[in-house]
């Protein structure tokens, strides 16, 4: 049926959530993207990580890790941590910021979308079966897995979770990006004179 285009389109909750087009933006705090990934440990345990990146400077503003599934509540905590990282403790963002994610249940949950709007984020989702539509987040996952996970000891979940903070710090402060003129996110931010 799929080959002959006889399947119905999946319902994704409305057109306003869709994102099509370029991911990178020229200004900070205009679009943030988020996704999750899994790290397998030597003992069979799995660590699931979710993160939020700014689509201009590529800074990983917040992340969370768990050995269970990532829930909507976790994503709401991730959103709040990203807002507080950039703006301090505020009730609502001073400007609306797009929040780009895939269609994972933790991202499209009604409570998560409502919370996002309440704090000034505009939830947007990528088209189904189109991971390249959130290519910046996908590239971040590849970088973390290639440059950090693969070269580190991962005997168990506890060890991996202890290392995550240093991996994210190194990524933000040292890891060069071609799109940022081979500077790290924090070096790029510093060259722009942004606090």
Describe the structure.
The chain has 195 residues and is of the alpha/beta class. It has a single domain, classed as Nucleotidyltransferase, domain 5 (2-Layer Sandwich). Helices cover 35% and strands 18% of the residues. The protein has 6 helices and 5 strands. A 5-stranded mixed β-sheet has the order 3-2-1-4-5, with helices on both faces. Strand 1 and strand 2 (46-54) form a beta hairpin. Helix 1 (72-87) packs parallel to helix 3. The longest helix is centred in the last third of the chain and has 17 residues, at 157-173. The radius of gyration is 17 Å and the shape is globular. The relative contact order is 0.17. Mean pLDDT is 89; it is low at 11-20.
Reconstruct the topology from this structure.
Elements: E1 31-40, E2 46-54, E3 60-66, H1 72-87, E4 97-101, H2 105-108, H3 110-119, E5 121-125, H4 135-149, H5 157-173, H6 185-191
Parallel strand pairs: 1-4, 4-5
Antiparallel strand pairs: 1-2, 2-3
Helix pairs in contact: 1-3
Could you spell the SSE succession in H and E letters? EEEHEHHEHHH
| Poorly predicted runs of 5 or more residues | 11-20
| Strand order, largest beta sheet | 3-2-1-4-5
Number of domains: 1
Name the CATH class.
Answer: Alpha Beta
Which structural class is indicated by helix and strand composition? alpha/beta
The portion of residues assigned to helices is 25-40%
């Amino acid at each position: 049926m799929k080959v002959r285009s006889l399947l119905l389109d999946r319902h994704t909750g409305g057109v306003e959530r869709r994102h099509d087009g370029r991911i990178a933006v020229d200004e900070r705090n205009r679009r943030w993207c988020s996704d999750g990934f899994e790290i397998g440990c030597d003992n069979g345990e799995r660590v699931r990580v979710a993160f939020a990146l700014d689509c201009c400077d590529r800074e990983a503003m917040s992340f969370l890790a768990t050995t269970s599934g990532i829930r909507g509540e976790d994503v709401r905590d991730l959103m709040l941590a990203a807002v507080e990282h950039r703006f301090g403790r505020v009730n609502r963002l001073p400007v609306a910021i797009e929040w780009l994610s895939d269609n994972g249940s933790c991202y499209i949950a009604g409570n998560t979308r409502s919370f996002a709007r309440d704090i000034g984020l505009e939830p947007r989702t990528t088209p189904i079966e189109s991971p390249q539509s959130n290519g910046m987040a996908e590239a971040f996952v590849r970088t973390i897995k290639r440059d950090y996970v693969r070269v580190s000891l991962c005997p168990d979940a506890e060890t991996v979770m202890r290392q995550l903070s240093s991996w994210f710090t190194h990524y933000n402060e040292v890891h060069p990006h071609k799109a940022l003129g081979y500077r790290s996110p924090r070096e790029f931010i510093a060259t722009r004179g942004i606090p």
